Amino acid sequence: MYFCIFSKKDLVFCLYNFVLLYAEKKGYSLFKLKNSKQNMGFFSKLFGKKNQETQKIGGMEDYMTLIRVYFQASLASKLGITNLAMLPDLRTFKTTLHVATVNNKLGVGEKSRCKKMMKELYKTDDMFFDEIDQSIKKNCKKLQDVQPYLIQFQGFSQDLMMLTSNLMKFKLRLPGFFKKALYTMTEKTVDDIFNKNDYTDAGVIKTVMAVRQYDKKLGFSQKWITDFVYQIVMLAKKEPQKADQK
Fold it and tell me: What angle separates helix 88-97 from helix 108-122, to the nearest 10 degrees?
């Protein structure tokens, strides 16, 4: 069995409308991290890319990779999974950064290390991680629950990102330094998705209902969803322009 929340192809799909707004941009954001040589090696291995000067730490793919790692680490520690072949992103994370196994239990040390990295790179708060743990605890009682859960989260994320990009439209063009305004707009859009019932577009209505059904099962709060969407919006805005690369 192969556990994976997002492949690179899935990520491109769920961020499709965001990419449309930044069609002339590519590469990775210009975040910097202490011990960058070690971490650059880690992300290069995760993405299967070598010696690319344009690759930077902290972009959208980095973010989604660390999300996958955290989910897999939480699943491993919760269900007692010991076979790293079932957790490909966790395996790469663990072996590349040489994360020690804590108390002979896979996932514990890896969760802590991944959490620390996300706090440093993205200022992610403890609530974000706690809600992932709670969702997994609620939905994954046994090993057989894992794959359906990950499929649900993947569907939820894809529908959520396409829906929010569609509803926010040109609001996403607001410059990235208007962080508070962008967060407020994202928060309002997420609130509408869960509480507004007067949409007229059939496609929007269908996707809104799908997102609500997914989240009823997954159990994420509107605050968690807002933070998740906002982070991706901000990372999309930090993509370096193609014209800058000659």
Answer: 80
Q: What are phi and psi for residue 173, nearest 5 degrees? A: -80, -5
d(C-alpha 154, C-alpha 127), whole Å = 21
Q: CA neighbours within 13 Å on the CB side: how many for 123? A: 6
pTM score over 0.70? yes
How far apart are alpha carbons 190 and 102 in whole angstroms? 38
Is the pLDDT reported for residue 17 higher than 70? no
* Distance of alpha carbon 28 from alpha carbon 240, whole angstroms: 7
Q: What DSSP string runs through 181-235?
A: HHHHHHHHHHHHHHH------HHHHHHHHHHHHHHHHH---HHHHHHHHHHHHHH
